[in-house]
Write a structure and sequence with these properties.
Elements lengths: L5 E12 L10 E17 L4 E5 L4 E6 L2 E6 L4 H19 L4 E8 L9 H16 L6 H15 L6 H8 L2 E5 L3 E4 L8 E5 L6 H14 L1 H24 L2 H17 L5 H12 L4 E4 L7 E5 L5 H10 L3 E5 L7 E2 L2
Parallel strand pairs: 3-6
Antiparallel strand pairs: 1-2, 1-13, 2-6, 2-7, 3-4, 4-5, 7-8, 9-11, 9-12, 10-11
Helix pairs in contact: 1-2, 1-3, 2-3, 2-4, 3-4, 5-6, 6-7, 8-9
This protein binds (3R)-3-hydroxy-3-methyl-5-(phosphonooxy)pentanoic acid.
């Protein structure tokens, strides 16, 4: 067992195509982007499971099944619950009867559609795996991260844990797992944030409701989503940014149709198009959170300022970055 602290990180993700439909077995394309969460872990002799989030300004510890808040809001226990699950799985796998300190420092906006909860879980599992010599494979780290994600919303597809753990770019299907994708040219991608926090769980529940009410209509929307992904895979192989942009807009329209867009998301999508983007769409669960746009390289700055003038914040994102990894 190592006495030092271990730092691990995991990337944020954007779903390029297929969110929500992926919960119903359709394919989706996700890429890891160059915003990361950093998790520092260390051993404690007092057997507490102490957690501190620098970004959320909350801290507290679990001891004998109870949570004790140290600082920040009452909702800390709920936020820390998935991390507790990860830590307990790793302690169990390593057969060690110790406490741990877990400190989270994130560059990923929370509840914004960039998969921050899965990134925290994947980075925590990776750091503890190293600290406790638990010898979990990457596949097992993915499984643990997936279990944690299930606590956040009941029926996750698994796409967030997969991209946080493995990084890169993937085509994901719930029942078949993922296929890594080679994207050989640069995709000038912009992420715009509405700044509106929302819950993935309630948006997923909303889609379920609307599908139950109008199964034939909604199922054919899901079918259309699948066709979009097939064409997008081809366009990504060929580097056809114009086609990708058009497909993004169709995908945004389908997400709007099932009620997961938001006035502000639509506004940022229009702002990006006005500035010359090839296409734009919401990303992740919607209802607020983030949108993405693809633009000709020379227009990236213009697209960013147009999104900002429309009331969002925006940044260029590098895609295809490494998955969960040890930093020290
Ligand atoms: O908004 P995020 O980062 O939680 O992504 C949710 C993606 C969904 O497809 C809506 C749900 C899922 O589990 O795949």
């Amino acid at each position: 067992m190592k006495s030092e602290t271990v730092i691990a990180s995991a990337p944020a993700k954007v779903i390029l195509f297929g969110e929500h439909f992926v919960v119903y077995g359709k394919p989706a394309i996700a890429v890891a982007i160059d915003r990361r969460v950093y998790v520092k872990v260390g051993i404690r002799e007092d057997r507490k499971l102490y957690i501190r989030s620098l970004s959320l300004e909350i801290s507290g510890y679990f001891q004998n099944e109870k949570f004790f808040l140290e600082s920040g809001k009452e909702s800390a226990e709920e936020k820390f619950e998935p991390i507790r699950v990860v830590a307990e799985k790793l302690l169990e796998a390593s057969n060690k009867d110790v406490g741990v300190t877990i400190e989270i420092d994130s560059q990923i906006p929370v509840a914004a559609g960039l998969g921050s909860s899965a990134s925290v879980a994947a980075a925590t599992a990776t750091a503890l795996n190293h600290l406790l010599n638990a010898e979990l494979s990457r596949e097992e780290i993915f499984r643990v991260t997936f279990e944690a994600e299930k606590l956040i919303h009941g029926t996750p597809s698994g796409i967030d844990p997969a991209i946080a753990t493995y990084g890169g770019a993937i085509v994901y299907r719930k029942d078949e797992g993922f296929q890594p994708m080679n994207i050989e040219f640069s995709v000038p991608l912009i992420v715009g944030d509405t700044g509106l926090e929302r819950s993935t769980g309630s948006l997923v529940a909303h889609v379920k409701q609307i599908r139950n009410a109008y199964p034939e209509i909604v199922n054919s929307i899901f079918e259309a989503g699948e066709k979009i992904v097939e064409k997008a895979v081809q366009a990504l192989k060929e580097g056809d940014l114009e086609v990708l942009g058009r497909l993004m807009l169709i995908n945004h329209g389908l997400l709007f149709a099932i009620g997961v867009s938001h006035e502000k998301l639509d506004k940022l999508v229009h702002a990006a198009l006005r500035a010359g983007a090839y296409g734009a769409k919401l990303t992740g669960a919607g209802g607020g959170g983030c949108m993405i746009a693809i633009a000709p390289s020379k227009l990236v700055d213009q697209v960013i300022s147009s999104i900002e003038q429309a009331g969002g914040t925006a940044f260029p994102a590098k895609i295809n970055v490494e998955g969960a990894r040890i930093e020290n």
